[in-house]
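Protein modeling request. Please complete all fields; requests missing the sequence field cannot be processed.
Requester role: graduate student
Desired output: 3D structure, token encoding
Chains: 1
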Amino acid sequence: MNYLKELTFPVGLSLSVSMFLAICAFGQTLSRDHLSITDQTTITQPVSDDVSLITIAYGKLAKYIKAAYIWQSNGERPLNRQGRSEKLADNGSSISFEIKNIRTGAIEDIYQDIYGERVSKPQGDILNVGQMTVRLNNGSERIAYKAEWGINQSNSLVEDWQHTTFEEVLRRVGTTLPPVKKYTAYDVKVKFGKKEKSYKAMILHHEMTSSSTLQFSFLDNIVGQIALTKAFYETRPAIE
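Delivered output (240 residues):
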């Protein structure tokens, strides 16, 4: 199993820039009521607005995490990084997300905001998420995500979270990411097993170019940018 450690600024990963943008934004352009997202949430694609974007990303992740427990209940066990089977931690069989204060606006509106005050730093309890792929007899593949609570032990390349502006972070990233045209910021409460955590997260909306197919960057340092990005773009069905 590929275990996706949620490091803030890993080197050599295609998603490292998204993870580098551990940033934030409060906008006043748009405000929405809260969303409750679980593995039972109906997911309708394609993305039609910021609410559907959040629902698809977190809803698919919840379904994939639930699928790992379904697979185990059928007598199977996931493999760890050493290739040995292991029992999933007793965290319950599902995860839920409460999303509030959804705000979308032009990227220029938040250039002078301090990112450490807007998107939560990856510290304390975080979720470690790893993808499992199961190949069926007919050759098709199904997906599940193993998740467990852990303590973040990564180091950040940007230490000054309380003084660096959003504009400065985007300047450092330069052309590594497609141009950003707007953002969606929101508050999250994740519940998994006996723990819950409240934090701030954000999504960057990119301008589509001929050289890039990356449309969104997910800036969630507690659930993890890699896990959300993979879940959002995943087309294979969950294990049943």
